[in-house]
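Dear colleagues,

As part of the handover before I leave the project, I'm documenting each prediction I ran so the next person doesn't have to rerun anything. This entry is a single chain, and its sequence is reproduced below.
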Amino acid sequence: MKDILQTFRYEPDGARSLEDALCAFIKEEIAFGRLKGGDRLPTMRDIAQATGLTFGKARLVVERLAREGYVHSRPYAGTVVLPRGANVLRGRVLLALPDADAARFFAAQLIDILRRRLSSSGYVCAVVTFPPGGGGLADLRLDLLRPDLVIALRATPEVQKCLAGSNIRHLYIFGGKPEDPASPWIRASSGTAFAQFADHCAKARVRRVVQVRFADDDTFDAQAALVQKGIACTSLEMARDGDCAWGIEGYTRRSYEIFAKMPPGRFPDLLLFWNAFLAQGAVTAFLSRGIRLPEDVKVVALSNAGLGPVYPKSFTRFEIDPVENGEKVAAFALSVLAKGRLPRPPDITPKYVFGATFPF
């Protein structure tokens, strides 16, 4: 069973320790049937060597799993997984999100909060990411895993097709609106977001804004809120197709194409982008023409994907507060799991936040 540790990955984020992450991983393997009753866990020495834990901490992980009823250690026989039902596991939850969202600050924080809240209530949570155009959920064979609930961040066509063909309870959060009106969907009010944004701009004495958005996305349009505050707003719109639907390279290239053709002129007080990749494309286009953004031009991106240094110009992350809204989604999910049915999901009016300023 040493092979089971080959799929374990740990990325330090300050939210949980290596021991906690390993415990959660082994619970997931048990919950989703990859470790079955009677299977032996790797020895403590093998666990220590494979994960980088000390022998003492590896022993603490095994003792914790035994204390919580997942495994049983026997002299000379090693540590054995207990049969399903022998432990305190209440159920299994699958958290699904697109690859492009996995690195976003909001998504990463939201997933971490959901995992911690659900885990503390006895549910094991597994996270699966999927590429644009398919794969992911369909490859997992949900009919075999039988999770008690699937929580999907974004109602992409591929995810909707997969979940619609199953009898598994599911819940869409934020993202796009599901095609099936009966599908449960926790919505986020972008109107609230842009009202807060316009108020922020007015206080910062912003007088002219250029927003960069996709023409088919009605959820991203700050113009009405800005005009109401007396702020001029111009929209640069682009069509979204194929590789531009979710791909990072598509976002960046399309933004570059728009700004490379843009005639030089007076910069606005603020540039507002649908995401950080469009912002990167714009900045790259300016640099290729020998144009540098003036220091007093503010750059704001709705949702930060965590770009590395590209240009010595900072921008502000503007997005849903993952803590407050993660708690709301977790509370609703626990209600669904406890009642065994899907009540009408709440319309969450999210609190949007201006995060720390990050360098491009």
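Residues 305-312 have pLDDT under 50 and may be disordered. The first helix runs from residue 18 to 31.

All the best with the project,
I.
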